[in-house]
Write the structure tokens for this entry.
Amino acid sequence: MKKSVIATAVAVGIVVSLGGCSASSGGSEGGTVELVFRQFDPANQVEGLQTAIDTWNADNPDIQVTLETLSPDNPQQFAREANSGSGPDIQQMGYANVALLANPNILLPLDDLMASDPLDQAYDDFLATDMTTIDDTTWGIPWTADTMALVYNPAVLDEYGIDETPSTWEDLADAAQTISDDSDGVVQGFCFAASSAPTSAQWFPINYYLWDHGWNLVEQDGDEWTTGVSSSDLASTIDYFSEMFSSGASSTSNIAIADYADPQIAGALSDGSCAMSYEPPQSFRAIESASDAELMTAPMPGGLTDGSTHLGGRALGINRNTEHPEEAWEVVKYLTSATTFETYQQYPASKATLTDIDVPESEVGYTEQLPHSVAFGKYIGSDMPLATIQQLVVQQFSAVYSGQSDSQTAAEAILAGIESGIGG
Amino acid sequence: MTVELDMVTDSAPARSVDPRRGRRSERNGGRRAARREPYLLMFPALLVMAALFLFPAVYNTVLAFQELTPYQSPGDATWAGGDNFVALFTNPATGSAAFNTAFWLTGVTVVVRLVFGLALAVVLQSAILERWRVRGLARTLVLVPWMVPPVVAVAAWRWMLDGNTGVINQTLVSLGLLDQGVPFLAQTSTVWFAVDAIIVWRELPFVVIVLMAGLQSIPKEQYEAAQLDSAGRWQQFLNVTLPNLRPVITVVILMTVIATFNNFVYVWLATGGGPGTYTQVLATQLYSTAFIGNDLGGGAAIGIVMTAVMAVFAVVYLRASNTVGKDER
């Protein structure tokens, strides 16, 4: 008797435990559909989004949405959950990750939903649709848009006689050098995160520099993938950034920093010990609000040339395991509408909504640059994941900064790594 | 065991008409039940161990011969034969990562921890701290780094070691020892010393605690006998303390080697494997391969190799701990 009681208790425990595995997915209770929307931005950046969700929940008692924050972005976690039959109903995705998640075992193709219940604006009127449509299937809806703009402390530029923000990479190097020299090295002309960590933010200016000079790390030529830059041109790019350190225009301490919003960079911009850097909009706002000094943005060097800067942002996808795809689609439509962006302080990926929003003067760099930015889509599709290319590139650049390698050797290592990776 | 047999026999129902045969049958059944009982009692524990240890180990071994990304379900894996191992051993980065793991990450930090740990344990055990009534406080302070989560410890050290605003550099510059700050984590000449300093600071208390326990177990009579033989403090340390501590030191070395060899957190959070690939270790290479390169099979192959190396240490550890146990008996 005792044995059977214990066995029953164990069995019940196992069943209950396993049942908990799918608990994060939404359900239906008493006619009310409950959905889970997971996003990955830090909690202090989504207060406006929570307000928008609260508004939805107040207006739609039959479809209640819970906002779940899992920061930082972890697409592999979502893939694991979706592959095992669970996960949130609606998932926020970085543009570059949509291709990794574009799998019918993970995401629900949205074409049928879009055809039966169209979005408020045409799908083609969104930015970055090349990142969310793969092999003619729509796996996500572009939601927000961002890019890296030049962030500067105008008082510092004034002090060292820099009248205009640099519009070319050569101007940037000259201005940074002037500031550093004239301040006896006390002020960094250009500070940037230059570590070899896989997510190192130096990835962005490296590509901006390449693209502005007409080069690409990876290019698609018909069905073939090739490298799009010669070893000498790539070496000259490495030299450009390496000289920032050797000339003193940027502190060598930055070689240990991975994040563009690292406190060392944010603090230096605020206290005037760094004249210029680059940030996406959300980070800029966080730094600006914490700073006593006035901070401004401008387009990056070459930023007003089409295709010289990247278009980043988030897309929305629906979990293939959701029990309520139509209701989830209703929520996606709401999130991409102008109503959401009345409280959610992000740049919308909808071109029509983007032109309607009011932007503070300090953010003019983003609004001027965004129409010229392009997504990283041109690097996606080969056998080499974007993150692997990024890791290879930042490691080799960082190896030159720290004196482990010379620029030519590093450039050849990057190209050899890419050539072996893109071919499969 | 007799009691258990009786209990089983008493509770077993009679099934035979022949009383002698029935008693024999009952006795045999009771013996069988008694023989099964230990296995039945061990079964839940074995089941848990199999689920938590055996299954992951077997699955990881299978994975090492497969091609699978983190975005696929296990059913989508394809067989890769020995390709993952070939790729690992032909990758030029593997050699430097293995050297960094064995020398900088493990060898240096274990030796430094042992030397500092022994010195601190002796100091904390000394009569002078007892006389000043600060022994308890000193022991508590030594434990502080161990209470700090590794993530927090590395974040704090990164700030302190920053070349521009770090408190260490600012102090050295203000004392006139440096003209300008040194970016400890950004240059190859200093980065491993900085990483090792973080590891030693955070992990030293474990060594101190174990060695202090060893010191407390040394009979005072041995020191008294040494004093009668006119042995000085240094001679007492060499001829009494160290020989008595040798089994404990052996176990400490093996435990810290095993714990450090597989460590991922310190290097990854402090340097990300950089500058360049200068501080890449096997654990960070495993992570990069599996989760940045989306190659779970390649990562599993690295894990197999690391496990094989650690298995050698584990065997040595088990033998050493058995020896310590026998010595104590």
About this structure: Chain B touches chain A through 30 residues (CB under 8 Å). Chain B has a mean pLDDT of 89. The longest strand of chain B covers residues 66-67. DSSP finds 14 helices and two strands in chain B.
